[in-house]
């Protein structure tokens, strides 16, 4: 057995026995420990999360596991340094895969292929790309309560095919001219949460959103005890029959001159906002201009 944890009040407790401790090596997940027990509190028969958790060391039981494997499951090619041929019975080709992935080029989430009638002919877009995530770099000062520094970089295992017409990169405001632009509106592209519970809009929508000045936005959210900072952008919510509730991650963009060409530039990423149309608060987005330097410092080849 071995002990692990931070003794910070967060850890395994009653009912967590058998839970796994995992580690990632070369893109594959392995299990190293199984929750066994945590020292109980002195005044109650429940765990003390400020104590270490004891784990069963799986590595110490590999021979026992090998002895009880049965049936040819998984690949048979075993590495040369493996002494026991029964390790070949373990599904090494499929175990521990990372299930997280992203989809690129999506438009209508209710269909497999996006098609439309154009001049009397049926025209379909290229298929979407589903790519696995290799790693994620999250901002070290992310604050989940106030959605501050709500940004991360995702590295894909394979390059996205941006030669397709439905998948193109967007520009970042890296120059001083782009950083200092003072627009009063942005184009929002988003899937929207429907005003009826349990229903979502499946087709990507575009709308023009007016900027809400920072001081005005701070005042509107003051009654909700929510802190809005200069690292965020506020855009006016559409009310009435045109009310929409954009899903998180939606881009706020502008068409700007980049290298003497008109291109889309990313200025915001929707973080949160009203959950009902009758709420009067604006939608709040991450202000990309304030995080361009962080992006440049953390991107990798």
UniProtKB/TrEMBL annotation:
<dbReference type="InterPro" id="IPR009003">
    <property type="entry name" value="Peptidase_S1_PA"/>
</dbReference>
<protein>
    <recommendedName>
        <fullName>Peptidase S1 domain-containing protein</fullName>
    </recommendedName>
</protein>
<dbReference type="GO" id="GO:0004252">
    <property type="term" value="F:serine-type endopeptidase activity"/>
</dbReference>
<feature type="domain" description="Peptidase S1">
    <location>
        <begin position="1"/>
        <end position="70"/>
    </location>
</feature>
<dbReference type="InterPro" id="IPR001254">
    <property type="entry name" value="Trypsin_dom"/>
</dbReference>
<comment type="similarity">
    <text>Belongs to the peptidase S1 family. CLIP subfamily.</text>
</comment>
<feature type="domain" description="Peptidase S1">
    <location>
        <begin position="89"/>
        <end position="300"/>
    </location>
</feature>
<dbReference type="Pfam" id="PF00089">
    <property type="entry name" value="Trypsin"/>
</dbReference>
<dbReference type="GO" id="GO:0006508">
    <property type="term" value="P:proteolysis"/>
</dbReference>
<dbReference type="InterPro" id="IPR043504">
    <property type="entry name" value="Peptidase_S1_PA_chymotrypsin"/>
</dbReference>
<dbReference type="InterPro" id="IPR051333">
    <property type="entry name" value="CLIP_Serine_Protease"/>
</dbReference>
């Amino acid at each position: 057995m071995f002990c692990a944890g931070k003794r910070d009040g967060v850890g395994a407790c009653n009912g967590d026995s058998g839970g796994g401790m995992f580690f990632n090596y070369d893109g594959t997940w392995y299990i190293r420990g199984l929750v066994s027990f945590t020292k109980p509190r002195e005044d109650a028969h429940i765990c003390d999360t400020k104590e270490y958790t004891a784990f069963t060391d799986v590595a110490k039981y590999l021979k026992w596991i090998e002895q009880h494997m049965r049936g040819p499951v998984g690949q048979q090619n075993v590495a040369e340094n493996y002494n026991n041929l029964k390790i070949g019975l373990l599904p090494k080709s499929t175990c521990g895969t990372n299930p997280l992935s992203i989809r690129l080029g999506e438009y209508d989430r209710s269909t497999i292929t996006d098609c439309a009638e154009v001049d009397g002919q049926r025209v379909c877009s290229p298929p979407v790309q589903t790519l696995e995530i290799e790693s994620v770099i999250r901002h070290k000062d992310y604050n989940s309560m106030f959605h501050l520094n709500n940004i991360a970089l995702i590295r894909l295992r394979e390059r996205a095919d941006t030669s397709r017409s439905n998948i193109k990169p967007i520009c970042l405001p890296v120059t001083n001219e782009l950083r200092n632009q003072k627009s009063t509106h942005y184009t929002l592209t988003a899937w929207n949460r429907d005003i009826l519970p349990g229903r979502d809009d499946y087709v990507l929508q575009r709308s023009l959103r007016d900027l809400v000045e920072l001081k005005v936005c701070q005042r509107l959210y003051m009654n909700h005890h929510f802190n809005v900072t200069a690292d965020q952008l506020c855009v006016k919510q559409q009310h009435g029959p045109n009310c929409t509730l954009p899903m998180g991650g939606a881009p706020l963009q502008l068409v700007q001159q980049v290298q003497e060409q008109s291109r889309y530039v990313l200025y915001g990423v929707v973080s949160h906002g009203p959950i009902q149309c009758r709420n009067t608060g604006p939608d709040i987005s991450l202000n990309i201009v304030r995080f361009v330097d962080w992006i440049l410092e953390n991107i990798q080849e």
